[in-house]
Amino acid sequence: MRRLTDHPILSFRRGKKITFYFEGQELKAYEGETIAVALHANGIKNLRKTPKRKRNQGFFCAIGKCSSCLMEVNGIPNVRTCITRVKEGMSVRRQQGRGEIID
Amino acid sequence: MTDLHVLIAGGGPAGLATAIEAGKVGLNVLIVDEGIEPGGQLVKQTHKFFGNENFYASVRGFEIAQELLKEISNMKNVEILPESTVIGIYDKGIPVLNRETDRVDLLKPERIVIATGASEKFLQFENNDLPGVYGAGAVQTLMNQYGILPGENILIIGSGNIGLIVSYQLEQAGANVKAIVEAADRIGGYEVHARKAKRLGIPILLKHTIKKALGITQVEGAVITEVDENWQMIPSKEREFVVDTICIATGLTPSVELVSQAGGNIKYIPELGGYVPERNIDMRTTVNNVFVAGDVSGIEEATTAMIEGRIAGLNIARDLSKKIDENRLNDLKEQIKNFRSGPTSQKVCSGLQKLGFTIEREKFVEKNDDDFKKYEGKKRPIIECPEPIPCNPCETSCPVGAITVGENINSIPTIDYEKCTGCGICVSKCPGLAIFMIQELLDSNKAIIGIPYEFLPLPQKNDTVYVLSRDGEILDTGEVTQVTDFGNKSPVVYVKIDREHIEDARHIKPVTHSRNDYVCRCEEITVEDIEKAIDEGYTDFEELRRYLRIAMGPCGGRTCRLNALKILSRKTGIPVEKLDPGNLRPPAVPTTFKTISEGSEKNE
Prior knowledge:
The structure holds 2 protein chains of 2 kinds.
Chain A: E1 2-3, E2 17-22, E3 25-30, H1 35-41, E4 48-49, E5 56-57, E6 70-73, E7 76-80, E8 91-96
Parallel strand pairs in A: 2-8, 4-8
Antiparallel strand pairs in A: 2-3, 4-5, 6-7, 6-8
Chain B: E1 6-9, H1 13-24, E2 29-32, H2 61-73, E3 78-81, E4 84-86, E5 94-98, E6 103-107, E7 111-114, E8 118-120, E9 133-135, H3 136-145, E10 148-149, E11 153-157, H4 161-172, E12 176-182, H5 191-198, E13 204-206, E14 208-214, E15 221-227, E16 233-241, E17 245-248, E18 252-254, H6 257-261, E19 266-269, E20 274-277, E21 290-292, H7 302-321, H8 326-339, H9 346-354, E22 380-383, H10 393-397, E23 403-404, E24 414-415, H11 425-429, E25 435-441, E26 446-452, E27 464-468, E28 474-484, E29 492-498, E30 507-510, E31 518-520, E32 525-526, H12 527-535, H13 541-548, H14 561-572, H15 593-598
Parallel strand pairs in B: 1-2, 1-7, 2-3, 7-21, 9-17, 11-12, 11-17, 12-13
Antiparallel strand pairs in B: 4-5, 5-6, 8-18, 14-15, 15-16, 19-20, 22-25, 23-24, 25-26, 26-29, 27-28, 27-30, 28-29, 31-32
Helix pairs in contact in B: 1-2, 1-7, 3-4, 4-5, 7-8, 12-14
């Protein structure tokens, strides 16, 4: 996994560089990227542990349809990280099972 | 928006086209779009579209999205609500979730357009949930929308248009597509897309399927196998690939949930991708105020999605504002009929017949009889349009009117070489990259070939490049004589080649090795190749030999073995005498099996 710079057809306009956290680890992303995309750019494809069989899963569709990318974002579980923008200071964790809702 | 006339669920090509038509007559329109930027799947399409000029033919998908969005941004009565989803349809109204504000609002529009598109079909094989197994659309999103390459070595499952296009795009981005696997005995997508993939050297393995993904926490490989005529895997025909990404491109299925919730009938029609809404020719569902457009009404492609959207929009305009351009509506219906009249639309048409539509077959030209050979020596295009598909930019772009597709857009083009000036615009415009320039240099055994080239680095005049065959094999080297840029990212690179290759030379690639300091003459292995392999971790001579084929050529390693060992010693710091020189195998010189089998044993 790597960020593309030169491309024969496209030019990638990236936003401001920001910091977010994955499992407590500080990572860099660009504003405008989704959480799942930013994790991919940092070499992380394993996004959650499934509820029943405890399988590692990553995303499948990347457009918010398949719900394979559900993660815990700022303490809130079941966030579709493929269509949620990453933000400065955001804390992202691999979702364990169905996630726990804390009031 | 106080008085909402039209709510459109989905801001892809169908939804945007609907909004433009409804917006034009002054209706208040709200597009609810789930993505973080509108445009649907257009935003990640980097290839030029087929079709005709009225519907953005030869324009790249992401540029079509930009044009549609620009048109909408000029309409004050059309609003796009991004990062939002219609979560249901009820008698009392339509709840819309805004993810950004985390709020649900209940909206009560007079007409609803469901343009929710489709979702990827999932395929069953062992470990198919492993991170690194993606739908083809996901690979496009990562790579073309966000500029992140999901992996370096990719296996593609499915040879429909999406599988073929994604393969080509992955190579454009610098990845290595190991193979396209197709369970059927023929390629699913357009032949022009298949040819683009083949000349990059990507093998298309027919009658093969994936058996399992390998890896613990993410994909590290894949096992594929051949299938028999009953689609059963043949255990003795298994093969393993070292890949970090598996891309499933086995098709799409319409996202009809909202249609069903609105009370619309849905019907299972496999030719259209699964469950599809029942609807009439005006895109109205069985519920009077609910319309559909695009892939949700049957899997097709973005051009027909845009036409369907416009048809829906015009009907809504008639319903609500009484303003309707009947001629335009009829013209659109004619265009979509014309579009679907070719052989590549047969599947869609048989699906539409099951929905109650009558499909009239129209005539089209099935092959051209161009007198290409008669004009030997003239710089001219050769049109290799192998099957009738709905597309005509070659005709409309030709500045002298030398190319004709004719009334049916599915027809194969013909060219009048007398009129042709050899400008090469058609080569650059052809969405299928199926036109090439050729000029035989009659005073020599050379020829010039012009290739549409969408890769980096772009060769420059006087560069030496490899000339590749239709299957991606290196035929020879050639010298670049000219590069013509038409400003559409499909420049034409002219290369001087041996005339004997003009039938087969259809691609080029840069000469990548920087030095020609050969260690192994038989297998053409340079110092650089060996050093790179050692850096990759092949630090044992036997491993190096199997990886690079060094010392495996006809000379048996007499020329290269010691020099290769010395490089290995220099790189690893291990003296040559401590390195294992590997096996020294027979035969000592090249010998035919015939000679051996006809020989006799002495001293029996």
